[in-house]
Structure to design on (234 residues):
């Protein structure tokens, strides 16, 4: 006789209850539970109305045999893009909630607090969570790339000012003040760009550090629970 305690959890596997989730099983590489890489990065349908276009909306999602690190190389990040991640913070929290749900809804062994957990599904969820941790660093990397663009643009502006001044100086040899003023403006532009770059870099590193600390604490709690259950099942 089927255990009714699984009904609610099994019903949640209905594809109609999860937009964008993929419950199919691959014959070559079995998948356990929904594929987190096939989920929309921003489930909120009102995101575009509130915050503008979704960042990296055209970015390729990771497949079973795909790596998209090259997509996020600095040369592929444009001024129009903003920091993006394969999974949003809400999606990561959802993965943690599913791990908790899996443990809480698993069958309890008689006369104990131990539970029988689906090992493959649990490993899949933990692996999915681990694979998406670097997304926080990608956000910081985007900010650093923006910093580099600010510096390069400032240098281009400075070079243009200097060249214009030098051409003008060629026709007005006695008016050296023009070149001096141009160089002073160029130096001021570079100094301002370097100051802005330092602020962006420091903010990016601080943001990434805080987000990774939060995720580390959450993962530590989950791993402690997993290790406890593994010991009790032996």
């Amino acid at each position: 006789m089927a255990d009714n305690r699984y009904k609610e959890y099994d019903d949640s596997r209905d594809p109609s209850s999860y937009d964008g989730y993929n419950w199919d099983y691959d014959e070559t590489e079995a998948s356990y539970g929904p594929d987190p890489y096939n989920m929309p990065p921003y489930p909120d349908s009102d995101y575009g109305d509130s915050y503008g276009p979704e960042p990296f909306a055209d970015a390729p999602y990771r497949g079973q045999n795909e790596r998209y690190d090259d997509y996020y190389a600095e040369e592929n990040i444009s001024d129009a893009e903003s920091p993006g991640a394969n999974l949003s913070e809400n999606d990561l929290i959802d993965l943690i909630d599913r791990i908790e749900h899996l443990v809480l809804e698993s069958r309890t062994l008689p006369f104990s607090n131990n539970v029988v957990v689906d090992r493959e599904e649990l490993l899949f969820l933990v692996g999915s969570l681990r694979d998406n941790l670097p997304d926080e660093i990608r956000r910081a990397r985007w900010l650093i790339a923006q910093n580099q663009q600010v510096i390069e643009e400032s240098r281009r502006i400075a070079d243009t000012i200097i060249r214009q001044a030098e051409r003008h100086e060629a026709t007005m040899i006695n008016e050296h003040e023009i070149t001096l003023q141009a160089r002073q403006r160029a130096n001021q532009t570079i100094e301002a760009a370097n100051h802005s770059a330092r602020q962006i870099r420091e903010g990016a590193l601080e943001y990434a550090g805080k987000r990774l600390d939060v995720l580390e604490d959450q993962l530590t709690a989950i791993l402690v629970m997993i290790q406890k259950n593994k010991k009790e099942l032996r």
Observations:
- The radius of gyration is 26 Å.
- Helices lie at 7-11, 47-51, 89-105, 119-131, 135-171, 177-233.
- Residues 92 and 117 are 21 Å apart (CA to CA).
- Residues 133-214 form one domain.
